[in-house]
Amino acid sequence: MRHKGNNIKLTVNNCNVSYNDEGPDGAPIIIFIHGFPLNKSMWDKQVKALKDNYRVIAYDIRGHGNSEVGAIDFSIDLFVNDLLSFMDALKIEKTMLCGLSMGGYIALNAIENHPGRFKALVLSDTNCRADTPEAKEKRMNTIISIKENGLDKFANDLIINLFSAESFKKNSEEIPVVREMIVKTTTQSLFKSLHALAERKETCSKLAEIKMPVLILVGKEDKITPPEVASAMQEKIEGSQLSIIEHAGHLSNMENEGEFNSQLMKFIGNLK
Ligand code: MLT
């Protein structure tokens, strides 16, 4: 039996996972995967916009939001395994998938390895490349810095890169919301996630094999995964669409939800 609502608990791969599941029974399903180190609430405005016509699911990746950290090390492969087990537990054979940044890394890996389980893909502010040696080193230095300087400094430094200058100028209400998500993530989870991100494999060489509708969205001012990165992915995925979201940085779905939602709804509304 389906449980509808927010913060529903489910054990997946020996880990207690928290998810929101809204919208009518039998409606087309879309699953949202959040970025690092955020949680499912970053999709609240998309869930609200879609839930009258779609079954909308947003879950907390293990170690994030209200999901347990679990005992084992993290990897993108593990996160994909969790996603597939989560879908099995909810008896979802096939779904649309939307991932932002780390959520996009998970979505790309999932589609590469389990293409039959997905109908369409929305990649937001993400990348198919693996970390460079410098990026890996930066992540390890971040771990050291969190140990030495604490979470507040980590959150302050990260937020500067997550939001556009415009969002800061207009004092976006999303900034303290995101800050809270970051500082509520445990250091244990941050360290495990930083290792997983550093060790992830590239998916660029498999993009040409994606044979489903794909929409790529990116904030015009995204400093972490800029529009050039999105455009390089679009060139490799046959038939994919790219839309650059104005007035937004890396968190395009939160910084300009109006444009983001309109592109998303147009894309999924046109799917057969
Ligand atoms: C994210 O938003 O998920 C992160 O920027 C991903 C990363 O650090 O590579």
Overall mean pLDDT score? 98
Helical residues, percent: 40-55%
**In angstroms, what separates the terminal alpha carbons?**
27 Å
Shape-level CATH architecture: 3-Layer(aba) Sandwich
Shape: globular
Q: Give the CATH level 1 class.
A: Alpha Beta
Helix-strand makeup class: alpha/beta
What small molecules are bound in this structure?
Answer: D-malate
> Strand portion, in percent?
15-25%
Could you list the spans in which at least 5 consecutive residues all have pLDDT below 50? none
Describe the oligomeric state of these chains in a short phrase.
single chain
Walk me through the structure.
The chain is α/β, with parallel strands linked by helices. The protein has one domain (5-269): Alpha/Beta hydrolase fold, catalytic domain (Rossmann fold), CATH 3.40.50. 43% of the residues lie in helices and 18% in strands. It is built from 11 helices and 8 strands. The protein has helices spanning 44-50, 76-89, 102-113, 133-149, 151-162, 165-169, 174-184, 187-199, 227-236, 252-255, 257-269, and strands spanning 5-12, 15-22, 29-33, 55-59, 95-100, 118-124, 214-219, 241-245. It has an 8-stranded mixed sheet, with helices on both faces. α9 links the parallel β7 and β8. α4 crosses α5 (151-162) and α5 (151-162) crosses α7 (174-184). The longest helix is centred in the middle third of the chain and has 17 residues, at 133-149. It is globular. It starts with a strand and ends with a helix. The relative contact order is 0.15. Bound molecules: D-malate. Residues 35-36, 101-102, 197, 224, 250 line the site of D-malate.
